[in-house]
Amino acid sequence: MGGPPAAPQLSGRFFTIGLVASWYSSNIGVLLLNKYLLSNYGFKYPIFLTMCHMTACSLLSYIAIAWLRIVPMQTVRSRLQLLKISALSLVFCGSVVSGNISLRYLPVSFNQAVGATTPFFTAVFAYLMTVKREAWITYVTLIPVVTGVIIASGGEPSFHLFGFIVCVAATAARALKSVLQGILLSSEGEKLNSMNLLLYMAPIAVVLLLPATLIMEENVVGITLALAREDIRIVWYLLFNSALAYFVNLTNFLVTKHTSALTLQVLGNAKGAVAVVVSILIFKNPVSVTGMLGYSMTVVGVILYSEAKKRNK
């Protein structure tokens, strides 16, 4: 007989909606706050900002896994596995730092348009580095993905060449990390879920970013402390922003766990569009019709690409 199961089903649905809302708000929140700090507030230290994020991810990952037991702790089995995680961490650092640098020069809306080309770079790296080949139709769907960004670049009133190059590098590094992860941690004994991978990658990232910060952004700690004496809000911005960076990873993991891979892809595509609209409303950066057409074309291309991949599995 029908009846009682409806309540748990409904609460489960509300839980998933809550998770997705948390994932969206933390993702878009960290992006907008990065933009505000690096561009509008004038805190010109993207490497130090990334190091703050990674420090928070190290501490909060440990609390979530070792104390709160959100997921079981997985151990690093060998020196070789640690070396592989370190390589992933290096690429991950490159993508986050480049993404933050690009936010100094580009509006969030354009940054997201370029970021939407991740599937193109993933397909290229997968083609070059693995024997895995997709069906030809899958590669055809990547044409609107790239064409859309080229059109958006031509119609972007705030276009900045250096910012654009760094943003493309960040997108490529993000794609390279996902392909490398599939290759390096593919054997059963080495597979780590994303929360455990972050637990090991984040402290390595801090170690890698520390010398880079000291050399390239000298006296950043002194400058930040001097800023804090004038305006204590900078400390709260950095703390909140860093905690939010961890929350992005946590909610991403939970959404992946509670929904299907396909739902995640669809939500991910929509998230970029939501971020664009929110950033335009907040920062009021000028947007051209050409730019919006280009971005829409990229999003349509990404949707077609995920459809083609699903059908040819």
Can you walk through the features of this model?
The protein is mainly alpha-helical. It has one domain. Helices cover 81% and strands 0% of the residues. It contains 13 helices and no strands. α2 packs across α11 and α3 runs antiparallel to α8. The longest helix has 35 residues. The model has no long low-confidence stretch (mean pLDDT 91).
What's the assembly state of these chains? single chain
Q: Residue-averaged pLDDT, rounded?
A: 91
Number of extended strands? 0
Q: Write down the Rg.
A: 20 Å
Distance between the termini: 38 Å
Give the amount of beta strand, in percent.
under 5%
Largest sheet: none
Gross geometry: globular
Q: Order of SSEs, N→C? A: HHHHHHHHHHHHH
Tally of separate domains: 1
Judged by helices, strands and strand pairing, the structural class is: mainly alpha
Low-confidence stretches: none
Number of helices: 13
Helix content, binned percent: over 70%
In short:
The chain has helices spanning 6-40, 46-67, 79-105, 108-115, 118-129, 136-140, 142-154, 161-184, 194-216, 220-230, 233-258, 261-283, 289-311. The protein is mostly helical and 313 residues long. It has one domain.
Task: List descriptors.
313 residues; globular
What topology emerges from the helices and strands here?
Blueprint: H1 6-40, H2 46-67, H3 79-105, H4 108-115, H5 118-129, H6 136-140, H7 142-154, H8 161-184, H9 194-216, H10 220-230, H11 233-258, H12 261-283, H13 289-311
